[in-house]
Specification:
single chain, 4-stranded mixed beta sheet
Length: 185
Amino acid sequence: MEITIVSKQLEVTPSLREYVEKKLQRLERFFDHIQDIRVTESIVKDQHIIEVTMKAGQSIIRAEERTNDMYTSIDKVVDKLEIQLKKYKGRFITNKRESLKGEKPNEAVLNKEIAEEEEALLAEIPKIVRTKSLSLKPMDVEDAIVDMDLLGHNFYIFRDISDNSVSIIYKRYDGNIGLITTSGE
């Protein structure tokens, strides 16, 4: 597992680097297929922000935390990543078990401890409890921002009038607005 640490407006001291590496290496006990981890540390308006992006198996797992202390941010982001990795591993085990069921039932039997852990992880996975259907009306980005504010939501999906693509605007932590656009490909 390769760990890359990048900093913005902050000097990464050897003790901070060692602390980050020690904490992140703990994650290997939850999932041993982590290829690489990218850590970005920054300070914005007295907030110590740590962003971690990791490649685990075929998935990208990301977490971000901001507090008044960098070490606290590191601890909290590692806790978030542990939860995400446990959920990912639970899905990974379930998919593997289901694919083996039809082919080799004897090999599909897992020991009791793994089965109990899997059930506990599956119980933590959020369920879809509500479904909404949207009709996306064409509008420009400014109108979408106004609609998002009027609804009191953190995001808004709309059809961009300029190119007829589906777009999403969302409120960022820093108070600005982000825009996600889609392409027809």
